[in-house]
Amino acid sequence: MTGTRLAASPAAPVVRRMSVGDRLRLGGRGLTVRKGRTALSALGVAIGITALVGVLGLSESSRADLQAQLDQLGTNLLTVAPGQGLLGDDATLPDESVAMIARIPTVTSASAVRKLDATVRRNDRVPQSETSGIGVVAADLDLPETVAATVAQGRWLDAATAQYPAVVLGSTAARRLAIGPLDGGVDVWIDGRPYAVVGVLDPVVLASELDEAAIIGTSVAHELFDGDLPPSGVYVRVDPAQVVPTRTVLGRTANPSAPDEVRVSRPSDALAAQDAANRSFTLLALGLGAVALLVGGVGIANVMVVSVLERRREIGVRRALGATRGSIGGQFLVESVLVSLFGGFAGAVLGVAVTWAFAASQGWALIVPWRPVAAGLACALVIGSLVGLYPALRAARVPPTEALRTA
After folding, report:
1. DSSP E strand boundaries for 13-119
2. SS3 for 203?
3. pTM for the complete prediction?
4. Ramachandran region of residue 31, left (φ > 0), alpha (ψ -120 to 50) or beta?
5. For the chain, how many helices (H) and strands (E)?
6. How far, in Å, are 25, 114, 205, 362 from residue 210 at the CA level?
7. Is the CB of residue 108 less than 8 Å from the CB of residue 180?
8. Parallel, antiparallel, or unpaired for β 166-169 and 120-121?
9. pLDDT per position as a tens digit, 339-386
10. Contact partners, residue 298, CB within 8 Å, separation at least 6
């Protein structure tokens, strides 16, 4: 029996799976083919991450600065002001209201201001109608201690200057009147006569209305201005642990006959409301950043789809040499993720730089929320993965013969 010799069957090709490092190198090489397109694709993600990091960083820095100011100045300052009467007319505080408030055991200091019907001008040649929005008030000598005000230049009123035509200007009032150094002697005109400027205040955080005021002593105010000068406002510093109980009795103490005509407020509440408004704007900006991220992701998807169409010959050659569909799809997915991460890192760096620059210009402490930075990079990774799925699947489904024939 003669046997037949069987032909040896050809050996099956050995399929080697690409390592992670090989995929990253191949994906990175694909991005260098058209560098300008890659940079523009990453720009949308970079803008979104910059917005997220910058907005959160500035918000945290601003909030930390506000908290530092409140810790320094205290949240135990209350203001007492006249409200409105039953008929809607403006009420007034009794002259003895300041002394009555000061007798409350939980009150550590009380200082009043009295609004005057007068105008402030730089000199007598300025028309009286041009007041620059500056008001004139007469203040007690202990006002700076009560409202935590500091003097930028010159000095505060004392027992001597309070009896003569001397004035201390708020920071905004001094700027509007173009007041420079006080060394050579500076005068402003109040109610038709010169007043010597003896001091200029720093901005008063908890009593910002004083920034736009020209402040004179109560003694000279009573001599130069006719009529009664009831308190237009009383600043009250209380025991920090007794703010709420003291606030409930201030109205009845300031005006026992008409406590409903007294307004009691806490300036720090206005700052807290401002912080709440800033939070709302922060959420709005975060929403805009999220939209920028979405737009950037769509841009990456479009660019990757175009890249698949342009590189059909490359896909066909690789498939003919034994590359699997998974390798082809993985290459384009890695390219999409790398583009998104490139934009994410660039956006994080820009966001930190913007936060640092603006915080430094405002004198704030630099606070970068690292969790949002990490979350932004994670979002870039997720976006790159999601938007790269469709181009990767499309590239993996390209038949090698068709790719070589149509390329």
Report:
1. 77-82, 107-116
2. coil
3. 0.59
4. alpha
5. 12, 11
6. 65, 12, 9, 22
7. no
8. unpaired
9. 888 888 888 888 888 888 888 888 777 777 677 678 778 888 888 888
10. 44, 387
